[in-house]
Each structure stands twice: as structure tokens, then as C-alpha cells.
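Quick one from the shared queue. A colleague (R.T.) flagged Protein kinase as missing a structural entry in our internal table.

Convert sequence to C-alpha cells.
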Amino acid sequence: MPLHVALTDSRHDEETLSDRGVRDPGVVGFTGGGACGAERSGRQIKVESETLSSRDLPPSVRPPSQEAQDCPPESGGRLAAVSSRRSTELAVAGWDRYAVLGLVGEGGMGAVYKARDPRLNRLVALKFLRSSDSGLVEHFFREARAQAQIDHPNVCKVYEVGEVAGLPYIAMQLIQGGPLGEAMQSMSLEQRVKAIRDVAEGLHEGHRTGLIHRDVKSANILVERTATGEFVPYLVDFGLAREIKAEDRTIFSVEGTPCYMSPEQVAGDLRQLDRRTDVYGLGATLYEALVGEPPFAGFPPLDVIWKVRTELPRPVREIDHCVPMDLETIALKCLEKEPHRRYDSARALAEDLQRYLDDEPVRARRASWVYVGWSKVRKHRLSLGVGALALVALGMVGGVALRARVTAREQRQRAEEVGALAQEIGQDAKEMELFMRYAYALPLHDTMREKAMIRARLSDLERRVTASGERLGPLADGAGHYALGRGFLALGEVEEAVRHLEQSLSRGYDTAEVSFAAGRARAMLYSRALDKASRLPNREAQEARRDEIAREHLEPALRYLRSSVEGARASMPYASALLALLEGRLDDAYAEGERAFGAEPWSYEARVIQGDALRGRATLSEDRGEHELALGDLRRAIALYREASAMATSDPALYDAQAEAWLGVMRIERHRGADLRAAYEQVIQSCDQSLVAEPRRAVAGANKAWAHIHQGWSLYRQGEDPRESLREALAEAEQAMQWGGPDPLAYNSIGAASWLRAQYEAGIGLDTEEPLRRAVESNRRAIEMDPNYGWAHNDIGIALGLLGERAVARGVDPRRFFSESAEHLDRAVALSPGDPTPRANQAWFHAQRALYELEHGVDPAPSVEHAIAHAESALKMRPGHVASHNNLGLAYMLLAEHLVVVGGDARSSLEKALGSFAVALRSSPADVEALRGSGAAWALLSRVLVARGEDPEAALRAGREALTAALAVAPADGEARLSLAALDRALGWAAVSSGRNPRRAFQAAHEALMRAHTQNPRSARPLAALAALHRDRAMMARRGGRAEEDIGEGLRRIRGALSLNPTLPAYRALQGALLVLKARGSRDAGVRGGLLQRAHDDLTQALAGNRFLSREYGAVLAEIEAMRPVMGAGGAGRGAGGAARRGAEAAVQAGATGGRKR
């Protein structure tokens, strides 16, 4: 009895029960007409088994008659008609676990009731088992508990098992729908296929938990229709039928319904039953979904059992020629007599159905009379004779005549033609392979002419294959696709090779040779995809991509190769080496490759296998941080690839392999800070050789692009100009996409090159908008092609953040860029949760936002806290991550600057910043960002110490050492020179505090700032720093009467800064302060009044834009206010503002100008 039956509309008046709800599935009680008629058309059968009625229940469970009268009827239908003759409610005295609403169906073993669970307020199906046998009850409970472990949306859920009033029960999901056999009448073909696919997934989940259904049929698949019109199938009775009738087994014990039973089931051999038995049952259900009836429908039960064991099902397309051939092939593969020829799992069946739905080639191959006959012809042993071939074909189907509509003479003629065709096109394939092998063995040359000749021959062969397939059937077509696949494989056009080889397999031409060729082709696609994944800059992204390509390429490759090893020729060492490589047994792959080369010294492919195995080992060593081992294996792999290329001098793939191995060397050496020039030259040379052999080879262009990018990074970190390398990278990436089509990794390489160019050009004063926008656009294209490409999200987040920083430097609101940057960086973290790099970049982004807030009077503390949290999160994942330590130091630096401008104690924050930079330098002693950040932190600490009247000498010395080291690595680093100038300015004020002359220190600061300005003339920051320095000198010089020159120069510099960034409040305030100094020196009251008014306007505007400036410039504004009442009284204003002036000078001397200037 099914776990659930659906309540359907009333369409029948007979007082009968449909097979879906009442017949005991444990009894092969075939009554009425055909054994399977009720299954295929909803035909009803009489219930001859004893039923469970109210009189069979104990008194405490019997329903009172009045309650039965008051029970609302079910939604009509046949079961409701039967239950109207009995009670529709079940009441159990004192039982509050469920409220039974009505009888749904019953049979000889028990009954199913509709009930409500008051605790969870949901409807359930309540199944009672009538049995006094403790063993049966235990089986009942055990299987129910086992089924409860199946958690799949297409398997009926078991909620609870228990016992009440001596009756065991199961509470299950109530499904409001009918059996698939009825539902399919209103379903389209696609909906039926989707339903079978979904059930196959649920069946696989049950198999995974160790359960075998044994009675998969349309009646045990219930279908609900959702409010949106979608059909949702549920597999029911999973595992229960077998156990319920365990006590009734006889010698001829068959479990299930014959039309849906496998040959091993009808034979009663319980030892052979496994998941493939259920695949057969689901295949029979698919057959029914395609033609309206299961195999062998309409025959008496014993005839059905005989036919299941001895006859092939009638081909689907003979019944309905409109059924797609791929669906017929899938169904017939499920219905193979031998379990090993069926799908190995329900999951494999579901995947093939999905391929059909996706309009992709299916992988099923059916055993037909042609296939069986060809099992001899395919080995080219035609001397066996066509008569013997026919006998073999007949013997394989149990001596029963095949359902073929052709005469024996036509069979012989067709088999003869198929065999001749296979010989002919097989010879063509061998000739094409040998031709290309000879071409590759010639000295290095352009092989496009030879490949064009092969393509012309393939075009002719394709026409012949199409014509013969239409005339001779699918096997001839399969043989032709095999030859085409081998031809494309010889050309290195692996995608086309895979397409043809898999079509060959799908048409029944499943020899070991075809499987081996398909496995090799898929392995090549896997290797290529793996190489692309290895270039992703972080391990998390690489692992995610490896999982994707394993599902797409590795799994089918392994399946094909494992299948091929059953064939005689597949025992060759090369096949074993390739299989070991794909299974990750790298040492075995290397050893098998050596054995293969020893057996066939002309087989350069064996050396390639060995090289690939060593590259795989190198990747594992690199992941463990064992860089020397990795480099050693990479160089040994390169030597093997070179040995192979000495035998096949014009095979471009061998040069690609060398280039990719050298790129691995570059990647490791770059992170170690080593010189990359030698490896870079080797990559370029290998790529150039590949392009000689095949002038438009996209992979060679892509490899050159990444070589140029690695070299550009190396030059940039050494302080050299990387732009020539980056220009070449861009050109190669664009060229590669012209040759091979758009590719997300190529777009990302364009973005990487553009972003790196922007980094360099920002440091030399060029506008970075164009390269940054190109970086954004390129990564957008990459994301469009692959929305889950985490590294593209990371890179676009950085580029947008830099555009925001650029906007700030020009006085433009950056929040639009910052917001979008945060979205992409958050997405990058979500896609690569175990990778510290996106989190480190989030820390950098929040630090940039904090800086903007600090300069515009907004509390930066929340942004600083976010920056610190992200950096610390990254460091938990990788404690030695240099970028995270640098960004953590930057965050603490910004916190310290905020404390300085509000009058707090910044020393603790500066100590943390210095500690972070020190850890980064222990990991990477020449890291420019860590050296520069450390120097800037020491400079700020020096100013803080001067303001507190403490000795800054140690801080000044440490800062100078760090900045000198930074400039030694990157002489053009303007940021380092700004920090060096800040150190000298602090040194000057320290000299003033101790009564010494600051002139030398101020002059050194001036020289550093002039160099920074010369290197980056479009940056406002050096100009603003020069203006502040001239203000310092003017304030010192006025005591000696020489201030006018510094005031004038300071005003000129700050006007230059404001022309580049007109909205930064600090620049406006500095201009106001310089105007006050100029007003002090003017003897003309009118001029002085005008200067003070302008200064007042500048300072008022500045403090309104940044409230944090009041501590530094509040005294200057107060001086103006004090001078304004006497502005017209000649020079009287000088005395009136003297106190305020001295306050302003004290603020400057205290180092309160230490905020970052743009």
C-alpha cells in the first residue's frame, strides 16, 4: 500500500479502489485483466484482500458512529466513495498526538488516514499496520526510521513512528495529488521528463542512505500541482514494500509489479538486487511516460515475467515516432537485461535526462541487434561471417526473436555495410592521425597548411557519415563520429573531438577505443581548465574553480577511461598513466609514464604525462609553502616537455606546456621577491615557438599576457617603470581573445594590467581615470561571463576604491565609488570565504573611507573599526599575510591622526600601527608599503612627542631609516618623500623648542617636498605641504623681520593645491592662515582689512566643512575677530590681536598640523 494517496476529483461511480491506494504491494496479486493495465491508465481493480475496518480495531480505537456522520467528506474521488461505507474518522481514547480526520485508503496490511498534527498544525498521512508479528513490526519501524533519514524534496518525508492502542503507526507527509500514471495525461513531454529526473535524484538520495526501493513504478510516484501550475513528484513507499512482505516469501518470490520489475527481480534472485534494480523500475516508468504504457503491458502476469527475462522491450519510437531518439536511448539503457549495462546509479540517469533537457548529447548507449552484431565487426574480424554475426545477435537476447521489422536478409546486408563502412572510415581516422604525427615531427614550422588539409578531409568525412547514418542507422553514425573525433583530436581541437566522440558513444558505438579517446579528450579539456584556474591569484578561488571543472571534465574523463580499461587495448601503460594522473595518483602516473615510454620510445605523449604529474606535485608543494620542492619539480617537468618537443618539434601544445610550467616558476619567484627576468624570457620564447607552429594560437597569446603581467609587477615593486610590459600584456590578451573568443580570465588579465598601470602612474602624477575605468570595465565583462568569478569582484572593488580616492583628490564626492567598491569586495569575500586577500582589501577600503571622513569632519571611528576588524579577520586565516598587516597599520595610523586633531593621546594607536608594520617587514623586509607606513607612523609620533615636550630623537631616527630603505627600493615613491618631509618638519619644531635654529631641518623638508612635487606635479598634497612649511618658516622668520617671501610663496603653493582640489577644507583653512600672516605685515589699513576678511571667509568655510580643524585654526579665527574692531586704526590691530596670534603660533609649534593633506 503506498504511503500516501491523493484525493482526486470524482470521476468514477464504481465502488472500487484504484491501485494507487489500496492494493497491498507486498502481494503479487494480479487480478482482473492485464498485469499492468491499472498502472498505465488508471484502470481499476477489485480489492480481494482482507481489509482493515473498524471492527478490526481495538475498542479504544473504534470510531463512534455519530462522529463518522459529522466528518466532512474528502474531496470526492473513488477512495472517498469507499470510505463512505465505513467510518471516516478515527478516535483514540486519550490520544492527543493526532486528530484523525478521515480514512484515505486501506488494504490487507493496514490503513492510511488523513490526520492533523496539533503540535505543528500540519496535515499528515497516518499509516497503521495491522500485525501481531513482532519481527514484521520491527521491520516496519526500522525501514520507516531509515526512510526518515532521506532528506530530499522529491521523496515523501517520514515524520514519526510510534504505537497507540497496540497498533504501530507511521506519520508521513500528506501529498495532495494523484499518481504519475494519471497526472501524466495532463503533462507535457518536458514536464514528464523533469518529473522522472526529479524522482531519480530522490531515488539516488535513498540509495545513498542504503535503501533499495524495489517497487519503483508510476503508482508509487505521486504528483502535486502547485498554484503556479508546476508539477512536483514524490517517490513513496521507499523501502517499505520489501519488508512488509518479508514473511510471505516463497520459492518464486518476486517483489514489485512485473511490468516495472527487472530481470533479476522476476528471477527471484534476491542477492543481485541493488540500486540498478531501481534504475530498471524507473526506466520502465520513463518508458510509460513516453508512450503511455510500461514495457510488456497488456499481457498476463506469467507472460510478462517471461518477456522481462527474455525479450527486449519494443523500441519506443516504433510505438510513437515523435518521441526524441535520445529519450528512447535513455529509457532502453535503463531497461538493459544485464545490470552492469544500465546506468550505474539513479544520479547518472538524472544527469542524462538533464542533458536531454539542456539539449546536450546524452551519454546513454542502448544494446540493439546492431550493437550486439557489431561486437564482432568492430574488431574487423569479418571472416567470422555474417551468418555467425546473426547467431551471436540472436543468442544475446535469450533465443527469442527480435522485434525488428526488417527481414533476415536485410539484417545481414545492413551488418555487412556497417562493417565495411567502419573499416573504411576507421582507416581514414588512422591516416589523419599519422599524417599529423609526421607533420609534428618535422622541424619547427607553421602547421596550418597540414591542418587545413585534415579539415578538408574531415568535412568530406562528415558528409559521408551523415549520409550513411541516415541510411544504415545509429551505429554507422556512431562509427563515423568516432572517426571524426579522432581527426579533431589529432588537430588539437579538443572541444570538437569531445563532441563527436560523445555522440559516437551515445549512438551505441561504445568500444574500449572510443571510451579511451573520449577520456583522453576530456582529460585534455580538464588540464586546460586547470591551468587557467592555477593562474587565479588566490587559493580559495583556485579551489572553487577546480571543483567546477572537476564536475565538468574530470568526472566524465574518469568514467570513460575506467570503462576503457575493460577493453583489450586499454591495458597499455599510457592509458594507465593517464588514469592515474586524473585520479591524483601522481607518483603512479609518473611511473606508468616511464613504463609507457619504455614500451613505445616514440610515444612522446608519455613524457607529457610525466611532466604533468610533476607539475601536479609542484602545485601541492607550493600550497604547503615548500617552494624549493615545487621549483625543482617544475624544472624537471620542463625538461620532460623539452624532450617531448625534440620528438615532435612542431606540436604547439608541447611549447604551451613549457610556457605554463615557466609561469609557475614566475609566480613562486615573484612572491619570494626574486628576479623574474630569466623565467620571463623562457615563457616568451616558448610562446613564440608555439605561435610559429600555430600562428593564431589563443593559449599562447594568453600565456604571454600573464608573463608580461608578472614581469610588470616585479618591475613595479623594484621601483622601475612597468608600463612597457603592461602595454604588451594588454595587446597579447586582446589578441588572444580575437583568436579564441571572449574569456573571463583574459578580461581579468586586462583589468590586472590596467590596475597596475594606474598604481604606477598615480605615483608619478598622471591622471589614472582612464586605466582605472578600463580595469573596472574589463572586470565587469569577466563578471558578466562568470558571475561567481571572485577575483574579478576583488579587482573591480579595488579599482572602484581607487576611483573614489581619485575623486577625493579632485574635490569630488567619492561615496558613489566607495559604495560600489564595498559591494564587490563583500561579494568577493562571500565567494572566497577562506581567502584573506578580499578581506585585506576590505580593510583598505574602509581605511580610505575613514580618511575621507577625517578630512571632512565626520567621525571616522566606525570606518576605522571596520578596517581593523577586516584586517584581523584576514590575519586569522593567514597570520603572515603582509597586505593585511599593512592595512591594519594604516587603520591604526588613521585612528592616531583623529586623536591628534581632537586633542587625544595617539601614542597607543601609533604603537599598534608600528607593530603591524614591523610584522609585515619580518615577512617581507623590502616591502615598500610596510617601510613607507612605518616611516609615516614614526613621523606622526615625532610630532606628538614634540607637542608633549618630549625628546623625539629615537622616533626621528627610526623613521628616517624606514623611509630611506623605502626610497632605496622605490626611488620615485612620492609618498615616502612626503613622510620624510614630515620628519624634517618635526625636527625643525624640536629645534625651535630647544632654542636652536630650525633652518637646516626646514630646508631638508623643502627639498624632499620639491622632489615629491616634481615627481607628481598633479598631486595637491606636495603643494599643500610646501604651503604649510612656508607658513612655519614665515612664523619663525617674522621674529627676524623676513617673512614676506615665505608668505608669498606659501600662498602661491596653496592656490596651486586648491586649483587641483578646491573643496578640501584643510587647504582653505591653510590659505586663511597665510592671509592672516600677510595682513599682520601690512601697514595699509584698507589692504589689511581686505586680507583679514578673505581670511575670515576661508577659515569660516573650512571649519564649517571640517569641525576637526577648530583645534588648529580656531585661534587664528579668534585673532581675526579680535583685530576686526580696530582694523581701520592704522597699526593698532597688531597689538589687539597679539594674544590670539601667540595662541595660533603655539598651535603650529605643537605640531597640530599633523593631519594628512591632499
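The beta strands are 99-106, 110-117, 122-129, 158-164, 167-173, 177-179, 221-225, 231-235.
The longest strand covers residues 99-106.
Added to the table.
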